[in-house]
């Protein structure tokens, strides 16, 4: 059985990675670590004393895991990922891989063997809904070219939840929502639309509250060499949020991906169908991700999926959107 340590015990660590690791029959959790005492206390209650609890990556590595899961913020991830890889471990690193393309340049120092042990946590790529969409697009069910609309709204502001507001404001200080949320969306689109990459035609940003450290709403128009067009919006920290969904409209049909459940709806001249996959989207995707990471560590697969190149490509598109958006924003 693969042994794994989890470093980073914030919301995504405690709420998604830790439960998936504990559910898995393919891995054994041997350590958790976080520099924040309250995070360690919360994790200790969940692991019930059966794993080591530490404050740093070094503490986690001291337990001798085969792999390390980094559920850390993007400003901390590069240094930790490189340290764990150079210690000979496999690494599953949360997206985005860094806060900027410049900050991600440190990954250039990795050897080919080290890169081959680094899987990127573009978690929702693993969902069967993405695979079904890929088949609909690839088989021409929708026709083409496609108009893709991505409305990614998350992190609703709750005035009564000061801790959440402070945490998301802190994340916003390291980049607009597109930098953090765009990693998933642009990875899906690269996977679904095929080779060639997305070009940013134009972009915009809006700060709905003057005291926010960066604009909290962002949007862009993008184009793909195959003729597809993408309209993308990302937003945080408003008291109410629009529906989160992606639509793929072609001459032969319309596919809609529910952003919360990943239920799919297909409308064509032949009629309508809805595809609902078993279980909840989050646990389903994190369980599939753990299984893929375990296969990489065991050597059942020869390359990480998604790999560092995929993480860097998604970050680059998100950064281009953020840069174009800020061109038209005054302080």
Automatic annotation (TrEMBL):
Pfam families: GFO_IDH_MocA. GO terms for molecular function: nucleotide binding. Residues 3-120 form the Gfo/Idh/MocA-like oxidoreductase N-terminal domain. The lineage of its organism: Bacteria, Bacillati, Actinomycetota, Actinomycetes, Jiangellales. This is Putative dehydrogenase. SUPFAM superfamilies: Glyceraldehyde-3-phosphate dehydrogenase-like, C-terminal domain, NAD(P)-binding Rossmann-fold domains. It comes from the Bacteria.
């Amino acid at each position: 059985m693969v042994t794994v340590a989890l470093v980073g015990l914030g919301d995504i660590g405690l709420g998604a990675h830790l439960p998936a690791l504990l559910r898995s029959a393919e891995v054994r959790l041997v350590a958790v670590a976080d520099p924040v005492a309250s995070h360690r206390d919360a994790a200790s209650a969940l692991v019930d004393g059966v794993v080591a609890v530490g404050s740093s990556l070094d503490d986690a590595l001291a337990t001798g895991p085969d792999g390390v899961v980094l559920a850390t913020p993007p400003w901390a991830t590069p240094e930790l990922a490189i340290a764990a890889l150079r210690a000979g471990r496999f690494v599953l690193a949360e997206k985005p891989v860094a806060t900027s393309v410049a900050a991600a340049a440190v990954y250039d120092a990795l050897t080919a063997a080290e890169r081959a042990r680094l899987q990127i946590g573009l978690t929702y790529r693993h969902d069967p809904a993405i695979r079904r969409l890929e088949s609909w697009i690839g088989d021409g069910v929708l026709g083409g070219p496609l108009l893709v609309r991505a409305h990614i709204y998350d992190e609703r502001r709750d005035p009564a939840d000061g801790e959440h507001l402070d945490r998301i404001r802190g994340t916003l200080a390291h980049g607009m929502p597109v930098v953090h949320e765009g990693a998933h969306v642009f990875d899906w689109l690269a996977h679904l639309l095929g080779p060639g990459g997305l070009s940013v035609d134009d972009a915009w940003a809006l700060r709905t509250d003057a005291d926010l450290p960066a604009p909290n709403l962002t949007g862009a128009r993008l184009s793909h060499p195959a003729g597809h067009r993408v309209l993308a919006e990302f937003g945080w920290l408003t008291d109410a949020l629009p529906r989160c969904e992606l639509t793929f409209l072609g001459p032969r049909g319309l596919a809609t991906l529910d952003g919360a459940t990943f239920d799919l709806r297909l409308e064509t001249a032949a009629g309508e169908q809805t595809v609902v996959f078993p279980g909840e989207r989050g646990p389903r995707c994190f369980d599939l991700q753990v299984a893929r990471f375990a296969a990489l560590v065991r050597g059942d697969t020869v390359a990480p999926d998604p790999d560092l190149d995929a993480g860097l490509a998604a970050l680059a598109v998100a950064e281009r959107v953020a840069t174009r958006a800020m061109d038209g924003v005054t302080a």
